[in-house]
Design goal:
Number of strands: 0
Distance between the termini: 10 Å
Mean pLDDT: 77
Number of domains: 1
Low-confidence stretches: none
Length: about 60
Amino acid sequence: MTWYKSQLAKLDKRLLDIFVLAYDTLHLALGYDGNLDADVAQAGLKRLKRLSIGSNSERLPFK
């Protein structure tokens, strides 16, 4: 998580904000808090999709 955040911070603060929101929703709310609401999962996935929109220079490789 730290590596991705530092790389996104260098590229684009907007992408960093989207990544953090998606992480909070998908990993923390669903994983740790046990939120099973499908709407919450859809919202997290929608945020994550926003990261893949744009040029290849905006995309980070999976580490």
